[in-house]
Design goal:
Radius of gyration: 16 Å
Number of domains: 1
Oligomer: single chain
Order of helices and strands: HHHHHH
Number of strands: 0
Number of helices: 6
Protein backbone atom coordinates (compact mmCIF):
# COMPACT_ATOMS: atom_id res chain seq x y z
CA UNK A 1 0.00 0.00 0.00
CA UNK A 2 2.59 2.61 1.06
CA UNK A 3 5.87 3.41 -0.62
CA UNK A 4 7.17 5.18 2.50
CA UNK A 5 9.79 2.88 4.03
CA UNK A 6 8.21 1.40 7.19
CA UNK A 7 11.19 2.30 9.37
CA UNK A 8 11.06 5.89 8.17
CA UNK A 9 7.33 6.15 8.90
CA UNK A 10 7.92 4.75 12.39
CA UNK A 11 10.75 7.27 12.89
CA UNK A 12 8.49 10.16 11.80
CA UNK A 13 5.78 9.03 14.23
CA UNK A 14 8.30 8.64 17.05
CA UNK A 15 9.84 12.07 16.47
CA UNK A 16 6.41 13.70 16.12
CA UNK A 17 5.44 12.20 19.48
CA UNK A 18 8.64 13.47 21.09
CA UNK A 19 8.20 16.92 19.60
CA UNK A 20 4.55 17.10 20.65
CA UNK A 21 5.57 16.39 24.26
CA UNK A 22 7.68 19.53 24.39
CA UNK A 23 6.51 22.68 26.11
CA UNK A 24 7.21 26.37 25.74
CA UNK A 25 10.43 27.47 27.47
CA UNK A 26 9.99 28.64 31.05
CA UNK A 27 12.94 31.03 30.81
CA UNK A 28 14.29 32.24 27.48
CA UNK A 29 17.90 32.07 28.68
CA UNK A 30 18.08 30.32 32.05
CA UNK A 31 21.88 30.55 32.32
CA UNK A 32 22.09 27.08 33.80
CA UNK A 33 23.17 23.75 32.43
CA UNK A 34 21.16 20.49 32.18
CA UNK A 35 22.78 19.15 35.36
CA UNK A 36 21.67 22.20 37.34
CA UNK A 37 18.09 22.19 36.08
CA UNK A 38 17.58 18.44 36.29
CA UNK A 39 17.40 18.08 32.51
CA UNK A 40 13.99 19.78 32.35
CA UNK A 41 15.12 22.00 29.47
CA UNK A 42 15.18 18.93 27.21
CA UNK A 43 11.40 19.09 27.07
CA UNK A 44 11.36 22.77 26.14
CA UNK A 45 10.65 23.79 22.55
CA UNK A 46 13.52 26.05 21.58
CA UNK A 47 14.48 27.44 18.14
CA UNK A 48 17.48 25.11 17.92
CA UNK A 49 15.39 22.08 18.85
CA UNK A 50 17.09 18.90 17.59
CA UNK A 51 13.87 16.84 17.69
CA UNK A 52 12.09 19.35 15.46
CA UNK A 53 15.06 19.28 13.10
CA UNK A 54 15.12 15.47 13.00
CA UNK A 55 11.38 15.35 12.29
CA UNK A 56 11.62 17.96 9.54
CA UNK A 57 14.63 16.22 7.98
CA UNK A 58 12.82 12.86 8.00
CA UNK A 59 9.83 14.37 6.20
CA UNK A 60 12.07 16.26 3.76
CA UNK A 61 13.90 13.00 2.96
CA UNK A 62 10.70 11.55 1.47
CA UNK A 63 10.20 11.80 -2.27
CA UNK A 64 7.20 13.73 -3.64
CA UNK A 65 4.91 10.69 -3.84
CA UNK A 66 5.84 9.59 -0.32
CA UNK A 67 5.08 13.09 0.98
CA UNK A 68 1.66 12.82 -0.65
CA UNK A 69 1.14 9.48 1.10
CA UNK A 70 2.14 11.03 4.43
CA UNK A 71 -0.30 13.89 3.88
CA UNK A 72 -3.04 11.40 2.91
CA UNK A 73 -2.41 9.42 6.09
CA UNK A 74 -2.58 12.66 8.04
CA UNK A 75 -5.94 13.55 6.44
CA UNK A 76 -7.35 10.11 7.19
CA UNK A 77 -6.11 10.13 10.77
CA UNK A 78 -7.53 13.61 11.31
CA UNK A 79 -10.93 12.40 10.10
CA UNK A 80 -11.14 14.26 6.79
CA UNK A 81 -11.41 10.91 5.01
CA UNK A 82 -11.67 7.26 6.00
CA UNK A 83 -9.62 4.34 4.73
CA UNK A 84 -12.10 3.61 1.93
CA UNK A 85 -11.39 7.09 0.57
CA UNK A 86 -7.65 6.58 0.08
CA UNK A 87 -7.74 7.81 -3.53
CA UNK A 88 -9.60 10.96 -2.51
CA UNK A 89 -7.14 11.56 0.34
CA UNK A 90 -4.23 11.15 -2.09
CA UNK A 91 -5.86 13.57 -4.54
CA UNK A 92 -6.31 16.11 -1.74
CA UNK A 93 -2.65 15.64 -0.82
CA UNK A 94 -1.62 16.28 -4.44
CA UNK A 95 -3.82 19.38 -4.54
CA UNK A 96 -2.41 20.97 -1.38
CA UNK A 97 1.26 19.94 -1.63
CA UNK A 98 3.70 22.82 -1.71
CA UNK A 99 7.05 23.83 -0.30
CA UNK A 100 5.47 24.46 3.14
CA UNK A 101 4.13 20.95 3.81
CA UNK A 102 7.00 19.97 6.09
CA UNK A 103 6.51 23.04 8.27
CA UNK A 104 2.76 22.45 8.27
CA UNK A 105 3.10 18.83 9.39
CA UNK A 106 5.83 19.51 11.95
CA UNK A 107 3.84 22.31 13.54
CA UNK A 108 0.60 20.29 13.71
CA UNK A 109 -0.23 19.20 17.25
CA UNK A 110 -1.07 15.49 17.52
CA UNK A 111 0.66 14.60 14.24
CA UNK A 112 1.80 11.24 15.66
CA UNK A 113 -1.71 10.41 16.83
CA UNK A 114 -3.21 11.27 13.44
CA UNK A 115 -0.70 9.07 11.63
CA UNK A 116 -1.25 6.21 14.08
CA UNK A 117 -5.04 6.55 13.73
CA UNK A 118 -4.73 6.29 9.96
CA UNK A 119 -2.52 3.21 10.26
CA UNK A 120 -5.02 1.62 12.64
CA UNK A 121 -7.78 2.11 10.06
CA UNK A 122 -5.68 -0.03 7.72
CA UNK A 123 -5.13 -2.64 10.44
CA UNK A 124 -1.61 -1.63 11.48
CA UNK A 125 0.05 -0.10 14.51
CA UNK A 126 3.19 2.02 14.59
CA UNK A 127 4.90 -0.97 16.25
CA UNK A 128 4.33 -2.94 13.03
CA UNK A 129 6.63 -0.46 11.29
CA UNK A 130 9.44 -0.29 13.84
CA UNK A 131 12.71 -1.87 12.86
CA UNK A 132 14.51 -4.12 15.30
CA UNK A 133 14.18 -4.44 19.06
CA UNK A 134 13.54 -1.38 21.20
Amino acid sequence: MLTIPPEQLAFIIEKAREFDAEVAPMEPDPGSNPTDDGGVSILEDRPDNPVREELANAIDALDDFQKEELLALFFIGRGDFDRTQWREAMQQARDVRNEHETEYLVSTPLLAEYLEEALSQFGYTADDFRAGPE
